[in-house]
Amino acid sequence: MTQGRILVADDDSAIRTVLNQALSRSGYDVRLTSNAGTLWRWINEGDGDLVITDVVMPDENAFDLLPRIKRIRPDLPIVVMSAQNTFMTAIRASEKGAYEYLPKPFDLKELISIVGRALSEPRREQRVGDDDEGGENIPLVGRSPAMQDIYRVLARLMHTDLTVLISGESGTGKELVARALHDYGKRRNGPFVAINMAAIPRDLIESELFGHEKGSFTGAQTRSVGRFEQAESGTLFLDEIGDMPMDAQTRLLRVLQQGEYTTVGGRTPIKTDVRIVAATNKDLRQLIDQGLFREDLFFRLNVVPIRLPPLRERTEDIGDLVRHFFLQASREGLPAKQIDAAALEALRRYRWPGNIRELENLIRRLAALCPDEVINKEHIEAELERPFAEPLPEPAQESESLTVAVERHLAKYFSQFGDELPPAGLYQRILREIEQPLITAALAATRGNQIRAADLLGLNRNTLRKKIRDLEIQVYRGMR
């Protein structure tokens, strides 16, 4: 007895053969077709327990067929395959009601696993979207395996309100992912509000997030609306969450736990209905070990983690990104440019410390300043200031004492002023620079225990507390 009837539609005979063999070996009865018309007839007749179809068929696009299938057989799982491995393909597959999206080429073991899961679990509710592809304004670019994994995760998240934590180096596109989650998700009709924790003075963060009442502090002349209130029914994007002070972390945790907050100086709780998307370029687990980030807040934010790969891990996407940025530049009035193969190879060999933001800036600079229509290898090398568009490795540093390291730092510091002297007060500035990391390291080693840290440093406990206050060091007694 078979495990179910699988309907396969693909105009590539080789793919049909491979799928037929793999599915048959797994115990499924398989029917094959090369066109959408036959597939529709089978489904309309009630045949099949699951459908596997390519997007582009000779007679009809599968995205046009899926809504009709959903109207007559809403519980029929449909797995969509496509060689057009873009973010919008994954999103459209989800919007049209597909159970799963697989980019070509796909892994047969993964496909068999998806088929088994789809036939064994209760059918989840799918929302059928409209027919707007949003084609030219694709927010995310790239067809690399790393990006395909991200597209599939994002597609699954579009119809949820799950909290998302996006991690990645600076310039990898964390805000673009957050905006995509909003613009193509269930809260698209609400506001998208972004706040950068690293750009706000520490004493103003709570007021920025939650708002304040008139007279709640010096200078509060009127009531101010906070970002939570601004983002009501929409998405609140908390960028650089690792820079949030500990007291603000405590208030944010309370909001996530209770679903309400009070303004600074206010007494009446305010219910909130926002989706939280956070982002960081720091290792939050390391900050937890150092007593600088609350572990309980981390677990509240890290419901769905998404790691954005640095550009050096997805160099196969550089060609698509370059063409995308040149097209954007030409739409903004800059001269249209092309790039040759040698120039692209030079770009792929570069390490991109600034990631996609660095690449975008380079392309805009070339579009604006390069007199030639075709960008070649020489143009790239001149811009990147590397003979072969690859940075030189850092010279190996032998182990050195703290004294030698400080002397080297001071020599470099004094050289910046040439024949002049640095500003007065150097002694206190240097002591402050050394004190802060020293005390922070001692607190991290003692897990925030100030008595043990004072003993480790050889300081009086009250002296240590005063230094912690004066240096504005955040202390959190957390577990490693």
From TrEMBL:
CDD domains: AAA (cd00009), REC_RcNtrC-like (cd19928)
Keyword vocabulary terms for this entry: Activator, ATP-binding, Cytoplasm, DNA-binding, Nitrogen fixation, Nucleotide-binding, Phosphoprotein, Repressor, Transcription, Transcription regulation, Two-component regulatory system
Record GO cellular component, one term: cytoplasm
Keyword Transcription: yes
Domain Response regulatory: 5-119
Sites of 4-aspartylphosphate modification: D54
SUPFAM superfamilies: CheY-like (SSF52172), Homeodomain-like (SSF46689), P-loop containing nucleoside triphosphate hydrolases (SSF52540)
Protein name: DNA-binding transcriptional regulator NtrC
Gene assigned in the entry: ntrC
